[in-house]
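HUMAN:
Sorry, I am quite new to this. Are you able to go through these amino acid letters and fold codes? The numbers rather puzzle me.
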Amino acid sequence: MVGAACADGEAAGDFDYYVMSLSWSPNFCAIEGDAKGAEQCDSSGDYGWVLHGLWPQYEDGWPSFCNTVERNPSRSQSNEMVDIMGSSGLAWYQWKKHGRCSGLSSVEFYDLSRKAYDSVVRPPVLRKLDKTVALPASVIEEAWLEVNPDLEKDMVTITCRDGRIMETRICLTKDLEPRRCAPDARRDCTLGKALLDPIR
């Protein structure tokens, strides 16, 4: 996210809204995942948009690594998130950095994360790519808006890294209703030719 995070260790449950971050797995794998041997980059996974995280957010900034009395998720609970997050390690790390700030138990947070992921339609046209394409980042945003009529431009942000589309970030209320992103979470990638790799 652009902007400054607040100091680590805030009180759990003290935040204003969520940012759901969805990563385009083929581009993550091209930039760093393959080199790290990331679980989600195995060709058997068939991952497109994976849930990077559900992040509690302030209207300016965001909490992280909050203090909570809730237990950490078990290994099996984190494993159950692999189908939408690509790896159990990512699921556990997202709980540690962001989930603890939700004020929820780990089970509730994982359930809410899955509900958020299921609340949007991921543009099916992007799964049909058979080669890497270069396109304006704005086209990706338009694809999301077309298949999710409840979303508006200021509720969705597309991010880029190293010349590639990286993430779609969608702002949601605590009840997972779409809402406007605060200014610090609303800075779109402006590349006119951003690369998008096909699903392997």
